[in-house]
Every structure is written in C-alpha cells, then in structure tokens.
Amino acid sequence: MIIDTHIHLDDKRYEEDLDEVITRAKEGGVNKFIIPGADIKTLPRAIEIAQKYDDVYFAVGVHPYDMEDFDKEVFHKYLTHPKCVAVGECGLDYYRLEGTTEEKEAIKQQQKDVFVSQINLAKQYNKPLIVHIRDASNDSKEILEKYATSLKGVLHCFNADEQLLSLADNGFYFGIGGVLTFKNAKKLVNVLPKIPLEKLIIETDGPYLTPEPFRGKRNEPLYTTYVADKISQILEIPREEIEEITTKNAQKLFDIS
What is the β-pairing status of strands 30-35 and 200-202? Predict the structure, then answer.
C-alpha cells in the first residue's frame, strides 16, 4: 500500500479520465491521495474531488509563483474542512526571478512574507506544512528554523540539498518522487540514504516529473510504484517494507488512517 502525498489531481490534465486514473492507482496498490494547494483559483476543484472520493484529501496553500493570490480569508474558510489535512504547498522559489537586483530582492521578500503567513496559519490550525524549496535553501532553512518550531511538515521539493536534512530534527519529512529515477539524479541518489527512514514519504507531483520509464508523459499516482522500486533498490530494503514505512510515515504526518 502506498500513499501519494503530493498529486495535483485538480490539474486540467486529469479532467477527462480522473476516475480511470484513481482506479488504476488503486488496482496497483496506491490507495490514498493528497492534493496540495498551489493556487487559490484551483482550490474549489480540489475540494470537489476530495468530497467525491473517500480516499482523496486536500491542502490549502499558495505556491511562491502564485503569491499574489494569497488570501487569509480563504485559508480560514477551508482549513477546518474535514478533508483538509495540511497547509501548502508553500515556500520559496528563486529559480525564475527576473528584473533588477532591487526588483529581485523585493520579490524574495514578498515570497518570504507569504511563506511566514502560511506557517503561522499552519500553527494556528495545527496542520502540517507542505514546503516547496527551489534555489532558496538558505532562506528557507532559516525561516523554518525560526518560525516553524513545534510544527511538522514535508519538504516536497528541496533540490536534494543536504543542508536541509537537519530539518528532520525539527519534525520535517522528505517527499521522494519520480526525480529519483532520472539518470541525472545523482545528487538525490546520494542524499537518500542519509534521510532517516522514519522521515521518508512518497509522492508523484503529478502531472509533472514522471519517473522512468514514462518520462515525457503525464505523471499519475500509479507511478509511485516505480519510485518505491527505486528507493528499495538504492537502500537495499524490500519493496514491501518501503511501502509499509512510507505509508505509516504519511499517516502519522497527515493524521489519516
């Protein structure tokens, strides 16, 4: 049994065959799904899906690229929903910064402010965080160590940056997805054995980052099985044990049975 802890089922690329996607996943041993909140505009669709399917949950969050849409009132409205299990995905992403040095610094500061606001909401509602980090490890780590005390969460995207592994001591888990199967994923392959087993969870980030041998096609929850296979291979732990460990970790983190 596998839990896909990060799957954008509200994406338009699943509109035509969502039932089939979920059925294929369940037949393959993937039995629970968490839709991260990336954009407030797609949140109604995520909630609709979570209410339709018993084993689908959602989170409320704003991705750094969509920070202009951050609205506390929307968070307050949905964080008490029985299928809402987390805040995020939120965090920092400096990969596509454009403009002058001053403009870039202003964008960074706005991302930080929105990130901290979502951390505070997670603390207020006692929800775990789903954190996205890209080319912003130092600032992200500093913020999480400062503001996210007595809070748990998952680093769903973290550039396989070894300096972030210390956040395991702060209650953070590490989401492993299809990137692990890429031929150029040497950094993540090397970091994986350094992550405590009790802090590993599995995700797709579908429809993005499809694992081998399907790279280039739409990702879907069934493909978490290939991630589990790769983890098993690298750590030299039976696949069944990897499934059991990561499922228990996800259940504990997101408080789902």
Answer: unpaired
What is the secondary structure of the chain as a DSSP string? -EEES-B-TTSGGGTTTHHHHHHHHHHTTEEEEEE----GGGHHHHHHHHHHSTTEEEEE---GGGGGG--HHHHHHHTTSTTEEEEEEEEEE-TT--S-HHHHHHHHHHHHHHHHHHHHHHHHHT--EEEEEES-HHHHHHHHHHH-TT--EEEEE-TT-GGGGGGGGGTEEEEE-GGGGSTT-HHHHHHGGGS-GGGEEE---BTSSPPTTSTTSPP-GGGHHHHHHHHHHHHT--HHHHHHHHHHHHHHHHT--
Instruction: Return the pLDDT at 157.
Output: 84
Q: Hey, what are 179's tokens?
A: 């990137």
Q: Tokens 């748990």, residue?
A: 152
Residue among 116, 66, 124, 59 at smallest CA distance from 88: 59
Instruction: Check residue 20 and give its pLDDT.
Output: 98
Beta bridge partners of 200: 174
Of 165, 185, 157, 154, which is closest to residue 252 (Cα–Cα)? Answer: 154
Rounded distance between C-alpha atoms, residue 195 and residue 240, angstroms: 19
Q: For the chain, which domains are there?
A: 2-254 (3.20.20.140)
Residue with tokens 């954190």: 131
Query: How far is residue 15 CA from its own chain's centroid?
Result: 21
Low-confidence ranges of the chain (pLDDT < 70): none
Q: Is the Cβ–Cβ distance between 129 and 151 less than 8 Å?
A: yes
